[in-house]
Amino acid sequence: MTTEDLSGLIARTALGDRKAFSALYAETAAKLFGVTLRILKDRAQAEDALQEVYVRIWRRAGSFRVGQASATAWLVTIARNQAIDMLRARQPATLDYDDAPDIADQAPDPEARAALSGEAGRMEACLGELDADKARAVVGAYVEGLSYQELAEGNGVPLNTMRTWLRRSLLKLRECMNR
Amino acid sequence: MTTDAPIPDDDALAGEYVLGVLPLSERLAVEDRMRHDAGFARRVAAWQAELSHLDEAYQPETPPAGVKSRIDARLFAETDRPSPGLWGSLVFWRGLAFAAVVLAAASFFLPAEVAGPETPAAGPQLVAELGAAGSSVGLLAALDPANGALTVTPAAFSPDDGKALELWLVPGEGAPVSLGVVPDDGGRILLDRSMAERLGAGALIAVSIEPAGGSPTGVATGPVVLSGKLAKKIDQPKK
User: What sequence ranges are listed for the domain Anti-sigma K factor RskA C-terminal (chain B) (predicted)?
Assistant: First the structure.
C-alpha cells in the first residue's frame, strides 16, 4: 500500500469511516505491534499499548496533515509515544541531572552499535560519524525506548554526562543529515 | 558544528523528547508546551521527521487476532451510545428518518420554478444519502452543479447546546475540506465554483457536530455522525 493510500485511510478515519479504520488497522497493525513490542518487551503490555494506539489514531486522525509527516511516520510516532509513556510511568517521574559532570573519556565500546535493519541510508551513514557508543545510545533510546537513567548506567557515566553526550550527538546527527 | 558550540536548549529538548529519553514528568511538560507554543511544536515535528529514518529498525509482528475487536468494542461501544446532551433531539431525528428519505423525492426534484429562479436544472443533480452504521438518523445532501447550491434535507433543525452541523468533503487523499455549516434557518449552502467542481459522483461527504459557527480549526473537531457518497440521480425533473 502506498503512502497516499495510507493518508487517504487516515483522512477517512478522521471523519468516522469505520471501514477505512479497519483497513488502516489491517495495513499497519503489524508494524505498530512491532514498535510496542520492541519497546515494552512484553507481549501482554505490547497488546495493551497497541489498543491504546489505535484508540488514539481513531480520535486524532483529524490532526494528521499530509505533507507534514509521512503517514507511516505519523503512526509510528503515536505507537512510540504510547509505549514510551507506559515504560516511563513505571520509572521515576523526575531525574536529578545535577551530578558532577564526568569528563573522563570513555573507552569505545568494542561491540558494534545496534545494527539497523534494511538498507544503509543516510541516517546510517551519519550515525557512523558518531562515536560507536554514542550512536548506540541514540539508536537504543529511539528504537528500544531506553531512558537517560538506563543509558547512563549502561555506559557507566553520570546522568549529566549522558545527557550532554546525547544532546550533542543529536545535533551532530542533524548537521550531518542536512549536509 | 563543534562539540564546544553552545547547545540550543529548546532544540535539544525537542530532540530529547522525540528520542524518548526523558522521564515522565518532563515528557508531560514538553507535551503541554507543544500545545501552547507553535514554534516549539515545529521543532518537535522537525526532529520527528529527522529521526523517523530509524523507524525501519522496527520489524513487523502480527498482533493476536482479538486485539482489533477489543479496540472496536472500546471505541464503538462508546460512540454507539448516544450522548443525551448532544443528541437530545435524537428521538426527533429517528422520527424523521423515514420522512427524510420519502420527502427527498418531493423536495429535491420539484420543478425548477418551485425550487427558485436561481436553480435551472442544467446538469444532473448529485445526491448523497448521509447515514451512519446502526443508526436510523439520516440526511440527504443534494448538489446542483449548475449553481453550486448544496441543499440539505431535512434542514430546519438545530442540534443541542448551540452546536452546528458542518459538512465535509473527504478527498481520496489529504485532509477533509469544509463545505460549510448547515444554516440554522435552512439547509442551503452556496459553494464556490471551484469547490462545486470538486464534487463529482463518488465524492464522499460527511457531517460532523461542531461548535456554533463551525469548526474553529478547519478540521472536524466534533464527532462525525453521518457520511455518504454523492451519486447521480437518474430521475431528473422535466423542465
Answer: 97-224
Question: What stretch(es) of chain A map to CATH 1.10.1740.10?
Answer: 3-89
* pTM of the model as a whole: 0.59
How far lies B63's CA from each of A7, A98, A172, B89, in Å? 22, 42, 37, 41
Question: Cβ–Cβ of B223/A16 closer than 8 Å?
Answer: yes
Q: pLDDT tens for residues B1-51?
A: 444 444 568 999 999 999 999 999 999 999 999 999 999 999 999 999 899
The pLDDT tens digits of the residues spanning B57-79 come to 999 999 999 999 999 988 887 55
Residue B45: count of CB within 10 angstroms of its CB:
17
Write out the CATH class of domain A3-89: mainly alpha
Q: What is the distance between the alpha carbons of residues B161 and B85, in angstroms, rounded to a whole number?
A: 7
Please indicate if any CB of chain B lies within 8 Å of the CB of A14: yes
Query: How far is A49 from A28, CA to CA, in rounded Å?
Result: 14
Q: Quick check: B202 contacting A, CB < 8 Å?
A: no
- Give span(s): CATH 1.10.10.10, chain A: 95-179
